[in-house]
Structure formats: C-alpha cells, structure tokens
Design goal:
The chain is of the alpha/beta class. Helices cover 45% and strands 16% of the residues. It contains eight helices and nine strands. α1 crosses α2, α3 runs parallel beside α4 and α6 packs parallel to α7.
C-alpha cells in the first residue's frame, strides 16, 4: 500500500494521534508507526487504527519484545519496526501476519534479519553509514531485499540515498516532533511525497 515512506511519530500523544494520522494519509504517507517509548503508545495506535486502519498500515516502532508483538497483533496493527535485529521478534511478527522492519547496520545483521523472515531492512542510524557505506552493503544483499534508510534522511537528500540503493525512507523528526501542529505535519509530508515521487520511487512502492 502506498509509497515506501514510513512516518515515525515519536512522542505522539493519544489526543493528537488521529489528526496527525489524517494529515499524513491525506498527503500520501500511509505507513505510520508510533514508537513504544512514546506516551501511552497503545492508546494512540488503537485510535489510529479505528480512524484510518482501512487507509493506512499502522503499527509500532521500538518494538523489543515478543509480548509487544502479540499485543499489537491483537489490536489489528499491520507493521512492527524495531531499532535492533531480534530473530524472536521478527519471527513472531511474521507469524502474526504483520510486516517486520528490524533495525540493522552490519551485513551480519542484515542477513540474520532476512533469514528470520523480515519484510525488509531498516538501516539505522543511516547517517553514520552514509550513502557510500550503503552502496557497499547493498552490493552483497539480495537485490529483492527492501532497504529503508532511517536517521538523518530528509527530502533534500533522498536522491543521494536512492542512488546508493535505498528503496525507502523512515522519517521521524522531519515530519513530527512533540508539539507540532497537523498543518506542519501535512506540509512536511507533502514535501516528502513530492521528493520521493520525483525519484520515480512510487513505481517501486510495496
């Protein structure tokens, strides 16, 4: 569904969750996660699924435990994003029918995540590796493995990452910080979508 862009809403409050989600979906970003170190994250996710679950793939980030995966599955969440590569979390996510996006940085972690069944790879923190490092890692990965850059990416550098072999992006503070308005999120999302589409990336959306 939609573009290879994941919105990361760290610090989101439940009372603003639906308005922020509506702004993202209207702009064309339909993969959305709330990190579990946000205030009352499961409340936010439940409200977002109720309001927009038929139009967006909604789930959680910073998922570290199988018990969290099971709770998300029971809520109807559709994607699980982690900062690390935990084979148990990946397998539980896939078994529950959800997308699994584990955090990876080294080739060893990349292959371990794929072996466990990950939907795709979340390169984090991408800013430390840089596009040159991505090109080197991408050369040894299966060509079909989706690789999203997260951390230090923004619309003005999408082209550099795309040229290195990145197929998608996770956007955090560029899109959302605690206290920003839905209008701010909408403008940032529109800029992100325009930059992504300019790469021809929408044709590769999953």
């Amino acid at each position: 569904m939609g573009r290879n862009l994941i919105a990361i809403l760290r610090g989101l409050e439940p009372d603003e969750a639906v308005a922020i989600t509506e702004a993202l979906v209207a702009a064309g970003i339909t993969k959305i996660e709330v990190p579990l170190n946000s205030p009352r994250p499961f409340d936010s996710i439940a409200r977002m699924i109720d309001a927009c679950g038929d139009r967006a793939e909604i789930g959680a980030g910073t998922v570290l435990e199988v018990a969290q995966v099971e709770r998300l599955a029971g809520m109807g969440a559709r994607l699980v994003v982690s900062p690390n590569c935990d084979a148990d979390v990946i397998r539980a996510t896939v078994a529950a029918g959800m997308q699994s996006w584990p955090g990876v940085f080294t080739p060893t972690e990349c292959f371990a995540a794929l072996k466990a069944g990950a939907t795709g790879l979340k390169l984090f923190p991408a800013s430390l590796m840089g596009p040159g490092g991505v090109s080197a890692v991408k050369a040894v990965l299966p060509p079909s493995a989706p690789l999203y850059a997260v951390g230090g990416v923004a619309p003005d550098n999408f082209a550099d990452w795309h040229a290195a072999g990145v197929s998608g992006f996770g956007l955090g503070s560029f899109l959302f910080k605690p206290g920003v308005s839905p209008d701010h999120v909408a403008r940032a999302a529109e800029a992100s979508v325009a930059s992504y589409d300019a790469l021809g990336g929408a044709r590769a959306a999953g």
